[in-house]
Fold:
Amino acid sequence: MNPAYPFSAVVGLADLKLALVLNAVSSRVGGVLVRGEKGTAKSTIVRALAAQLPRVAVVAGCRFHCDPGAPDPGCPDGPHETTAAGGADAAGALRAASLVELPVGASEDRLVGSLDLERALTEGVKAFEPGLLAAAHRGVLYVDEVNLLHDHLVDLLLDAAALGVCYVERETVSVRHAARFLLVGTMNPEEGELRPQLLDRFGLTVEVRATREPDERAEVVRRRFAFDADPEGFAARWAAEESALAARIARARAALGSVRLPDSRLRQITAVCAGFEVDGLRADLVTAHAAVAHAAWQGRDVVTREDVRVAARLALPHRRRRDPFDAPGLDERLLDELLDQTEPAAPDDPDNPESPEDPDDSGGPGSGGSGGSDGSGAGDGAPAAPESAPEGGPEGARDGAPEGAAGPSEGTGSGDRPQDVAAAGAPFRVPVLKVAGVGAGVAGRRSSGRGRHGRTIGARVPTGAGPAGIDLPATLLAAAPHQLRRGRRGPGLVLRRDDLREPVREGREGNLVLFVVDASGSMGARRRMTAVKTAVLSLLLDAYQRRDKIGLVVFRGAGATVALPPTSSVEAGAARLRALPTGGRTPLAEGLATAAEVLRVERLRDPDRRPLLVVVTDGRATSGGDVTRAAAALAGVTSVVVDCESGPVRLGMAQALALRLGARVLPLESLGDLVRDRRKAG
Ligand SMILES: [Zn+2]
Structure:
């Protein structure tokens, strides 16, 4: 097997390296979420780190990687005899810390392990096949594109990560085993966000971006070439740096317990967390653990201001986000102000004078490596453009009236566009729009759907390769009539494979919500378009929370365009919408025809996902083709028309369009009314 790419040889990405190293030093830091574009060597660097972790002793033959010094008392392969701690003796063998990858398409059984219910019921054997959580115990669990993982799996994963235990329960049988691992997730925010509750459960986050520096890019390619041509030779050339790094990690681990966090520093941490308005206390805990780990990594025995700064920069960005429209990242000027305000008067430790200018920290894990990997990467992983989000903006807007407010959320536009771009207000809660009938799409939170989750509504003979769960009453009922014929004598039921019944469950599915937005001149003044944008933003936010895919078709002037092809990224949708110019004629038929085409293609790509069409218009068509024919092409699609007509004299054109589409009509004002009602109530 080829050696891993050396950690020290990775160019730039200083923040990511540091975040990984802090986790390697202290298991209490709580993992890393890596956010960023594709092609930034994220998996290479994680693999490289795993190779740097100290080797672990495991009980021979235990599929759950028990430590011979402290075996899991509940280990399904146990009980094991406890042997002298830390050593590899007769009972154990030393092996490299494992690196386990969780593929996005993994099943629940693959992740947590599977209990063979068929054997449990028909043979009375408790057969448990360990999953990836067992494999990752005492190593690294790497989840590429964690944002695309099913919510239910993410919950299981983060529960295990938080508790250090994996529970498997199937009907009446349950198994538990230890599962402690360093969790590293990656995501490309363009492809969809992670729910805020899940974001919060990753200890640190790092934004990565490939360097734009030509020299540095050349060095990346040069090293990659050298590695691919001769992995062994390349690894040998970096061996000294790598072993120095491994030794430094081991030293920091050993020193971790003796690092002091003075009370004044702890208060500084809590003040910084409060200053960034993070929810809950998890941020404070993670920041404290990361600061202690950083001090140990730097060889200090007391936590300093710099340790707190580094920890806050990595632990807070994802915890202060209020909704998915806010830009990520942390305002470092605010961070420094907060640190200044809370800096203790006296140094904590005269032996360890603090020097805030000390440049040592930025290069952290790379120090000791070659010049290329250090200072050059300092700005590389810095959070992107924190200045684009005005401080306190979204909160302020939420308190005010949503309509007409030139919202602060218009941060994505370049400012001086030639066209007329109306601002959007702060989003509000919208009524739930559902697709009629029962679908079979991916689990979500919108329309009714049959799947692996939800409420049991019946039972059936298994349709797949094996039963998807066992419905016990139905299975017993199926077996009961045959007991005498099968020669049953004693109390035990004689069960056969073909008696097994699986439950039929009904829950909620996610949909494709396709917005068709009229941005023509007939939609009227800037104020009107602001209200429309606010409403569509609110619907977008709702779609995000319900795990829908969204798409955006816009029509104005000469025709219709697909402003956003179907995606899970609400941020992309919001950005396109905010920048959307208004004016010109109203080619309504083209808008509908384009929508029909988007739905046709999407039906091929994702056939189980049912569409919901939301047409936002006043219904007036002032140019283009035949609306009746265009509407006919959308027959059978569940549709809603958001009627944007205003003024004392109304033509009712949107109503007419709704009739053609068989759509429900929702007046634009009614969305606003709902908000006002909610305000009064709350
Ligand atoms: Zn074991």
